[in-house]
Amino acid sequence: MELSTIKDAFERVVKKQKLCFSKSQDVIYQVGCEIEQTLTEILSAHDPTSPVDYRSVLADLKVKLNGIGSIPQLEGSHKELNVNLSKYTKLLERSLNSDISKAYRYVDFDHHIVTQMIANHFYREGSFNLGDGIIDEAGEPESTILKSQFMELHQIVEAMKVKNLEPALNWVSANRERLNQIGSNLEVKLHSLQFLEILQKGNLASALQYARTCLSPFASPPSPHKDEVVKLMGCLIYAGRLDSSPYSEITSPTHWEKSMEDLTRQFCSLLGQSYNSPLSMTMAAGFEGLPTLLKLANVMAARKQEWQAMKQLPVPVDLGKEFQFHSIFVCPVSRDQGSQENPPMLMPCLHVLCKQSILKLSKSSTRTFKCPYCPAEASVAQCRQLYF
């Protein structure tokens, strides 16, 4: 069943939920209005010569509330919601395979690497106690280097969340040479944030002094940040009132968030680690490829031994661009991955096959062959190797 069917059913449930909520609010409003009017009538009766018959007033209120029919209205809308919700649940049960063990294949994992990957994931997320627990339970040596590095990263980020840039600036200063090698502009970003923070507090003299000390090196040629520093100097005119100035955009909290992200990304880069957790990326890729694997497992159910022994999937598993880290060519004919011994070859018709497929199609180096994807013909000599 197509995912569009599930999506349509979900949208119907959402629509009914919104209608149910709206109906409930209307009924509650009507009941509240009648009660408020009755209370007003009771409280405004101060004339002792014409006392209010409270029983009569309450009886009238009861009649009005019965006339609203709050219970039948609420029951009707909730019934419609429950019907659609029940249909959606049954649709999910029919459509989605809850037993994913069929797609499982035994792989002889390196338990040491897996344990380290899980522990480092928790260290990366700041859950240091969980990381230590994984290491202790597995009896693995503690990866103290990564733990201490990620602990330093989290201390820096937590300080930035309360607009304390001192730890971040100290780290940038200690790693300035390595950051310059990767073309980082993190240092000027952090100094700009610190300058604006001082200026927003209305301390013009301190802001000017900070600019002379920390920003002036970035204003001299051949620095690429000259225009940015000039713009910051224009902010001096609006000390203490930057939020209502022409420069209000540079005071947006998103600049702090972006700087924290940049610092985390560059910290991981210098550490030799990816910005995203390898464990998280592996799990996400597995979730995306799971439907294809389940379908393949069902098709190969009668050939279980062949499925377990298979070294390469017979069908491609299409993943998003976020899971593509480097260029890989897979021959559309042989399904083999390109390599130095079997490189991709560009034919005159601009279709690409691997070298071994071209040799098999030509049967000899001099014979022409037809492209499997178009009517054009080519020879081995006319094909050119591609380099990714």
UniProtKB/TrEMBL annotation:
Chief location bin: cytoplasm
SUPFAM superfamilies named in the record: RING/U-box
Location of the RING-Gid-type domain: 331-374
GO cellular component terms listed in the entry, alphabetical order: cytoplasm; GID complex; nucleus
Annotated compartments: Cytoplasm
Chain intervals annotated as zinc finger (RING-Gid-type): 331-374
Pfam families found in the cross-reference section: CTLH, zf-RING_UBOX
Molecular function terms, GO-annotated: ubiquitin protein ligase activity; zinc ion binding
PROSITE patterns (alphabetical): CTLH, ZF_RING_GID
InterPro entries to which the protein is assigned, alphabetical: CRA_dom (IPR013144), CTLH/CRA (IPR024964), CTLH_C (IPR006595), Fyv10_fam (IPR045098), Rmd5_dRing (IPR037683), ZF_RING_GID (IPR044063), Znf-RING_euk (IPR027370), Znf_RING (IPR001841)
Domain CTLH: 149-206
Name of the protein this chain belongs to: RING-Gid-type domain-containing protein
Natural source organism: Malus domestica (Apple)
